[in-house]
Amino acid sequence: MSNRESAGIGMTSERTRGRMVDRLRSEGIVDEAVLAIMESIPRHLFVDEALSTRAYEDSPLPIGFGQTISSPYIVARMTELIHAPARIGKVLEIGTGSGYHTAVLARLWREVYTVERIAQLIAKARGNFRRLRLRNIRLTHGDGARGLPEAAPFDAILVTAAVPRVPPELLQQLASGGRMVLPLGGADQRLYLIENTPGGTVETGLEAVKFVPLRANLE
Ligand code: SAH
């Protein structure tokens, strides 16, 4: 990309982010704290430079290694489902990718833990966090289906790759009163909210979604 083009993105990205947030509101996102944070984070840093101009479109985009960055709507939706003003605690994200969703979480939660199976994506995400001076994120290269027992329990868990059923290890690492949001299914997937209540686990099925599958082998 030429300097002129990248300068153009710098100048217009703020306005483009404003439009992205207006669109998210019209699509039903109501948590203003989440919207304000998404308005402030330069999403184009998290996609390949050749795709920078498309970073604010409401679609997933490739980030290399056969993976994608989640669409702005999905990031907003999953984040508002676990966000409550009183929640100042610990959140675990499974599937870091290039780190956009992690960065949004880092501005809302005190401590953010994130697990990714592809080492090169961990390196990419780490560079993005450094650039944005985000210091409350712990990255782990590993299989997220096993969670992160050494840092449990978590007030919230987000799984950003599809699983056929709720991984039992993750359920065990959810604090009492905690919330987990994850895509369940294979070819057909649905977003689920799992609440760990005193009376037991409550599962709520939400909208249809499309995520890359969770895979166990590390790269
Ligand atoms: N949260 C990211 C989503 C990236 S896509 C965003 O904001 O864009 C999902 C990611 O999950 C991919 O990077 C993929 O490599 C990762 N993933 C898949 N299986 C995994 C596993 N078992 N453990 C950890 N990460 C996994």
Protein architecture, described:
This protein has 219 residues and is α/β, with parallel strands linked by helices. Helix content is 32%, strand content 27%. It contains six helices and nine strands. The strands form two sheets. The chain has a seven-stranded mixed sheet with strand order 5-4-3-6-7-8-9. Strands 1-2 form a two-stranded antiparallel sheet. α1 runs antiparallel to α2 (32-40). It is globular. The model is unreliable at 1-8 (pLDDT under 50). Bound molecules: S-adenosyl-L-homocysteine.
Compressed to H and E, one letter per element, the order equals HHEEHEHEHEEHEEE
Neighbour order of strands in the largest sheet = 5-4-3-6-7-8-9
Class inferred from helices and paired strands: alpha/beta
The beta-strand count equals: 9
Summarize the helices and strands and which ones pair or pack.
Elements: H1 3-26, H2 32-40, E1 61-64, E2 67-69, H3 72-82, E3 90-94, H4 100-106, E4 111-116, H5 119-131, E5 137-141, E6 154-159, H6 168-172, E7 174-185, E8 189-197, E9 200-209
Parallel strand pairs: 3-4, 3-6, 4-5, 6-7
Antiparallel strand pairs: 1-2, 7-8, 8-9
Bound molecules: S-adenosyl-L-homocysteine.
S-adenosyl-L-homocysteine is lined by residues 67-70, 75, 94-95, 97, 100-101, 115-118, 121, 143-145, 160-161, 212, 214-216.
In short:
With 219 residues, the chain is an alpha/beta fold. It has helices at residues 3-26, 32-40, 72-82, 100-106, 119-131, 168-172; strands spanning 61-64, 67-69, 90-94, 111-116, 137-141, 154-159, 174-185, 189-197, 200-209. Strand 7 and strand 8 form a beta hairpin.
